[in-house]
Amino acid sequence: MKTFEKILVLSNEFEAGLMEEVLTDRKIPHGIVTSEDSALGGIMGLEIGWGYLEAPPEFKKEILKLYGEISKK
Q1: Per-residue model confidence as pLDDT tens digits over 15-66
Q2: What totals of helices (H) and strands (E) does the chain contain, helices first?
Q3: Of the candidates 8, 21, 12, the residue with the CA atom closest to the CA atom of residue 65
Q4: What CATH number should be reported for the domain holding residue 64?
Q5: What 3-state DSSP class applies to 9?
Q6: Residue 3 contacts by C-beta under 8 Å, 6 or more apart in sequence?
Q7: Between 13-25 and 60-72, two packed helices, what is the crossing angle to 10 degrees?
Q8: How many structural domains does the chain have?
């Protein structure tokens, strides 16, 4: 089993969806973790972002490059 680490913070669900699609197409293992918490009324999202993307460390450079390309559009 591969070890995952936090790679980048995601701003919103749309951004997460784009990254999910790109990484799945490229067969890059990853996970998206949201910071939504209904008990706190979503306040954690304001403090720490919508969520984050995690993946094995050896994919970090490629993921950040892809994120940079997506963010420019």
Answers
A1: 999 999 999 999 999 999 998 654 444 554 445 578 999 999 999 999 999 9
A2: 3, 3
A3: 8
A4: 3.30.70
A5: strand
A6: 56, 57
A7: 130
A8: 1
